[in-house]
Hints:
The protein is an alpha+beta fold. The chain has 2 domains: 198 residues, no CATH class; 43 residues. Strands 1, 2, 3, 4, 5, 6, 7, 8 and 9 form a 9-stranded antiparallel β-sheet that branches. Strand 6 and strand 7 form a beta hairpin. Helix 1 crosses helix 3 and helix 2 packs antiparallel against helix 3. The protein is globular. The N and C termini lie close together (9 Å).
Amino acid sequence: MRLLCPGVSVAGVGVRVVPLRYAFPLDPAPGQRIALARAFGCARVVYNDAIAARAWAAGEAFLTAAVLSKTLITEAKRTRERHWLGEVSAVALQQSLRDAECAYQNFFASLRGARKGARAGAPRFKSRKDARQAVWFTANARWKINETGRLVLPKIGEVKVRWSRTLPTAPTSVTVVKDAAGRYFASFVIDTDPDQDRAGFSEPAPIVPSASTWAWLSSRGVPPSLSCPTARRPTLRGYWVGTERAERSPTPGGCGGRGRDRLLVRVSQPGAGRAARRCR
Length: 280
């Protein structure tokens, strides 16, 4: 999967750098799944603590990222309530604070009218029941891709990657994502020059979707249509209605707690399978 992000101009050089994302499936071992769940949880806690700290300081001096990093990460690791933050990479926690900082910047820019697009709301707390969990590692985390093609993450280990292509250049950061279907992905960010990429195509052509054809290729060819099946797809609400009696019962198989997580994975897997076949 290749996603195009907004370009960044480098002043004084004349080269326009465009970051691209390449996503590949991961096959973590059982122990690595536990370590990833710990990283997801710690990053979520730091993010929520940052939002709560700024909510308590409303009307006072704005808390900078440096102050929050010292209070919510460095000093919190020495307390009894947050000592488990030391079990994950400190860079992942720092990036979680940066995400909260970016969310507030977008919110304030939207209030001033300086941000284009739909109005951004105030940052909200994250929940462990969210369908998507993610943790971000930059170059400071000293992650790498070893000789065997495995992704080495700090305090997680060597995770197996299902490579579908080779990366054009060395990635600058990686984001590990877990979706609602329980699948794991590694999203690599790569900086490229669009002028050099455009030189590799002898006869470029725009992608023009239509009613009967979903895209046109640069070779003037037409790919086959990707039509979705018309069968009724299951929904989480449908499972909840069908298990109304189980929802009222206090047994572990009900829709509360882990029962809801199992139903969410069961509903998300068919759609994830169709999306995987569509991207082949």
